[in-house]
């Protein structure tokens, strides 16, 4: 036996990790203005009381921010990374009609860097607080030798709940229903492997002052859902437009039906510069093309669904073609 | 505009990813023998119906397998990695008294390798089926340039539920209560940064035929909880012994009380070889020392709690010292 081998010597500092948990506790509190966890932070799992629900159904999803993380790290935009992670998960929950209640994050890092981790989680907490979803816990894994220097691995999980009758049922979609598009703030967190290739081949394409806007975080769409519900609009389906673009994300709602969609060319500063290197057909399958959220409503309610939200518009109609056709108008 | 840049050319193959989703669907089915999801796989989130619960509380946790993944990959033990990931999460849920209902996995990989991913998820499904927790979804993120070649990033998330009166409340712990230890199968998924350092300094320490046993997956403890409940034993608290060992994992249950624990030296083949390089005091703070699960019960029920499960024993007592003392007997 010898004292040569200690866990701290192997690159893992449990006390440093424990101090960080305290700091994160404060950020968590900022997400608990309207609802709160049942048990205290620091046990093995977080709990939330659903006993006031009549017929609760829980909904969960899991997602990361993909390869956008590389550019976010390169441009020191850790808060945006945190927001992207939250939005990628919260928006998925929202598509079901569920209310996002608890979010958990997993951060893998070579060596605990408290400043970086607090900035990341600060971004998460800001987005979470805005939609009243609790930062319920998570794991910061110190992985010396596994996670390369300068890289941070991120994944997130969200759990929400709905009263059973409030769940969205895309099987109700009928030919003639309308698609309403709600604007994105940029590429959000999808398509970045391709974007990075284009940027590598065209260094200097994005101006220094364009970067922060270019990396804009994924928008949360809880306000859209709330607006539709306030107006009692009949929501037949909602889609979060992520990898695969409008075709893949709408296809999974349509159950064999089709879509005929026409969107304007996406003229958004540095985004448009990047798009100029990609064929329309490929771009449409890869990027959100300016529409981060799409809702299916009866034709009679389409105007009402589009008119209350800035930038929203009717982008197409359900048909029986069996395919999702997306035209980019010039 | 040009056709030079495509998403597939950038290393991301959406069709290959979609085919994999189908294969995973079959593995998911193997986890749905006793309970099932409410909506079909493939929408944006998975849902589970809790409307038969009277006073449901949901519990969630998130964890990874830490740096053990490096050795698991090196020794091609992907099924074990999947099992470790499940157990690290499911056991955390079990500590609350909750029933693990849905598990989601996040896999980050440089390039989709269907065989490897199916083996990983196959391991997850086997562990999940054994405790009737549904493989409810997940994300396989292809991260060319971010995840190094040969590395797989793993994180997991579990959500469970309990009737409110069945939740475990560690605040009920009293001085004189007993700690019951239930055996681990090895180091499980904690302490591997230190283990790897020891192995690097002592190449050949583990014999070729010892490796699989040495890397044994984290044990699930749902059978212990079920056994205690069948016998109506008063469970005051349960701890999953992970990073930080018995001291840190018991401390968070004790709310200022202390523990006086005595365990035998851990004589388990290759595990003992590694432990010979670490001082007892350090080992106790880092490894589970043979006890992956600890339950606190009233002294009067200690024998009953220990006797039904092979290898379980009374390992100590709650005291008022304010610290967790762990003695390794020789």
Topology:
The structure is a homodimer of 330-residue chains.
Chain A: H1 14-30, E1 46-49, E2 56-64, H2 68-74, H3 78-94, E3 99-109, H4 114-130, E4 134-142, E5 152-163, E6 178-183, H5 192-201, H6 211-214, H7 222-230, E7 237-240, H8 245-254, E8 258-264, H9 269-275, H10 280-286, E9 291-297, H11 302-307, E10 313-319, E11 324-329
Parallel strand pairs in A: 3-4, 8-11
Antiparallel strand pairs in A: 2-5, 3-5, 6-9, 6-10, 7-9, 8-10
Helix pairs in contact in A: 1-4, 3-4, 8-10
Residue windows where pLDDT falls under 50 for at least 5 positions of chain A: none
CATH hierarchy class name of the largest domain in chain A: Alpha Beta
| Oligomeric assembly | homodimer
Overall pLDDT confidence of chain A: 92
Total domain count of chain A: 2
- Number of H- or I-type helical stretches of chain A: 11
How large, in whole angstroms, is the Cα Rg of chain A? 21 Å
The most extensive interface between chains reads: A-B, 95 and 95 residues
How are the strands of the largest sheet of chain A arranged? 7-9-6-10-8-11
Helicity level of chain A, as a percent range? 25-40%
Main pleated sheet of chain A? 6 strands, mixed
Number of DSSP-assigned strands of chain A:
11
Assess the beta-strand content of chain A as a share of residues: 15-25%
């Amino acid at each position: 036996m010898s004292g040569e081998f200690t866990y701290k010597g192997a690159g893992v500092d449990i006390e440093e990790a424990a101090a960080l948990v305290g700091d994160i506790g404060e950020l968590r509190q900022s997400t608990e203005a309207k609802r709160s966890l049942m048990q205290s932070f620091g046990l093995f799992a977080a709990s939330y009381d659903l006993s006031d629900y009549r017929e609760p159904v829980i909904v969960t999803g899991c997602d990361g921010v993909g390869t956008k993380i590389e550019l976010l790290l390169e441009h020191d935009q850790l808060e945006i990374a945190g927001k992207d992670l939250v939005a990628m998960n919260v928006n998925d929950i929202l598509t079901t009609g569920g209310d996002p209640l608890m979010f958990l994050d997993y951060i893998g890092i070579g060596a605990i860097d408290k400043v970086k981790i607090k900035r990341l989680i600060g971004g998460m907490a800001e987005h979470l607080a805005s939609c009243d979803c609790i930062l319920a816990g998570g794991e910061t894994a110190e992985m010396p030798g596994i996670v390369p220097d300068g890289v941070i691995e991120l994944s997130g999980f969200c759990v929400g709940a709905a009263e059973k009758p409030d769940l969205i049922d895309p099987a109700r979609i009928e030919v003639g229903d309308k698609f309403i598009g709600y604007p994105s703030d940029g590429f959000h967190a999808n398509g970045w492997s391709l974007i990075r290739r284009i940027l590598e081949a065209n260094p200097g394409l994005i101006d220094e002052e364009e970067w922060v806007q270019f990396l804009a975080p994924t928008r949360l769409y809880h306000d859209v859902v709330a607006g539709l519900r306030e107006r009692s609009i009949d929501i037949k389906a909602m889609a979060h437009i992520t990898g695969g673009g409008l075709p893949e994300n709408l296809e999974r709602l349509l159950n064999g039906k089709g879509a005929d969609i026409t969107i304007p060319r996406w003229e958004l500063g540095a985004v448009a510069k990047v798009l100029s290197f990609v064929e329309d057909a490929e771009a449409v399958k890869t990027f959100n093309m300016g529409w981060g959220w799409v809702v299916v409503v009866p034709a009679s309610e389409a105007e009402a669904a589009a008119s209350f939200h800035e930038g929203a518009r009717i982008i197409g109609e359900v048909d029986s073609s069996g395919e999702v056709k997306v035209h980019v108008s010039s």
